[in-house]
What does this fold into?
Amino acid sequence: MRLSVIRRYPEVAATIVVGLAVFALLGTGLPTAAARLASGYALLVAAVTGARMVRDLLRGHWGLDVLAVLAILATVAVGEYVAALIIVLMLSGGEALEDFAARRARSELDALLERAPQAAHRLPPDSETPRDIPAASVVVGDVLLVKPAELVPVDGILLSAEASFDESSLTGESLPVTRAAGETVMSGSVNGPQAVRIRATATTADSQYQRIVALVREAAASKAPVVRLADRFAVPFTAVSLLIAGGAWLLSGDPVRFAEVLVLATPCPLLIAAPVAFLGGMSRSARNGIIVKGGATLQQLARARGIAFDKTGTLSYGRPHLVAVSPEPPFNAGEVLRLAASAEQYSSHVLAAAVQAAALEKGLVLSPATSAAEVATNGVQAQVAGRTVLVGKRRFVAAAVRNGLPGAGPAAGAAGELLVYVGVDGRFAGTLTLRDTPRDNARATLERLARLGLGQPVMLTGDGRASAESTAAALGIRTVHAELLPEDKVRLVAALPLRPAIMVGDGVNDAPVLAAADVGIAMGARGSTAAGESADAVIVADDISKVADAVDIGRRTLRVALESIWLGILLSVGLMLTAAFGFIPAVAGALTQELVDLAAILNALRTLGSGTGYVPASSVPDPAEEVRGVPPGNAQH
It folds into this structure.
């Protein structure tokens, strides 16, 4: 046994060691010493468990530990010390399994904190040379230099004439945002290719990025714990067990009969079956590219009724995609795209990569440029195959062409599209239309989620309304909330009427709402580390259909867990009735109970299988409804 496992589960290790020592003493002809060792150890465990049980009872929580303590005390009292030791092993082993399930894949929000801006470049009033200072030392009114590709350290006002910022980690918007002098710049956004100046309007503690960090912490701390599944059965199972054991003692007049019944009432199937089922569900999820952070998440996924999605990077691909080339005669579409992509090889703009990728996908051969210059926030000019090519904003190209540009033509289409203008040898050559398109399988995923029993999906996005409504219409989503900040998403998820509610997102801006939702699912392949850390489940593959897989696995896992618990209960009750008439001695009962455990565990391991078909929400019993009188939220663990 590995040392780390022994340290983590000392009770299991100690029970195994004591058990080996007891059998060694019995083998050497020292039954009295064996009895004293086993009984003393069992009573010690009963005392520790009993103290914990009393504390739980004082808090109003009745768990299955009551039966285990009574069974240990009864078997020791009648001299069945081997049976007592077996009970201790099963009790500690069940708790260890559940603890192991709870520890899976849970980590802190270090990545989010590490990404927070750490340094700033302050410009003194009498100097053009910046001084590096800690971001926490920035005060309101400081003039700061933000270098190309750097994080903006604090919220501020742009002093430079114009600049481009990547705000995708804050708002989810995949396209860069151009800000003019006097406009607000948010901390955590990434500066474009040009160094800019800003005037600080907030300290780091009061800036946008730190508010996101605070929201994640607050939401994670406020999330209510999910009650241990088996504990929902504690009161009725305990009552039935004590009734059978007490009746057997009363009718037979033999206290041994009480112990024999309680040995078979030991709640090992209840303590072990659910953790094994949830571990199996977690393993199956991992095989499907879904990292689920604990059995409680699977339980919530199984009961989920509402769901909300971020747009960019979740329902959409999260990257600009060429959707149309509109050439101006005499140019043709292939020529315009090839020349534009050749020039864009020398640009660092995110749209440049999209244009190049589109050209390569169409099999076009890009030409090298003899000279190229990027005009920050406007476009690129390059000499390609002896031709002067300009690619960029409307006004950038319009200022250099002789034939003018047709129509007013918005910079962004009604559907959230972005137009890139192309000029060749002083003539307007055409436009390239780019858009962040919905994922190919997004609509099918939403339809599958509906079949699984979830209500109408809701879109929560920081994107502009036109872009959001266009994507929603394409996917059949009726409820859209656009232009949201992280705190707006948290508020709207909290107000969702169908509970439990799932939130699916990918960016840093989604981290608070993923932590606040009943179940947060992060798209981990391209999403931010912070989103993955604050989520309850992370989809490793960049595939939104895995969201439906996660719900399906959760439904099946809970159903199998409940079946395993009921199997253990029915077998235990049948054996208790048999033992009540004196047909099963204590040690035989303890060993028979192991067969009950084995049956419950083997059934629970069905969660590792692929299953057939989907499990609608209506067919998954709510654990609270399985045992009347123990509604969710009233019990605590």
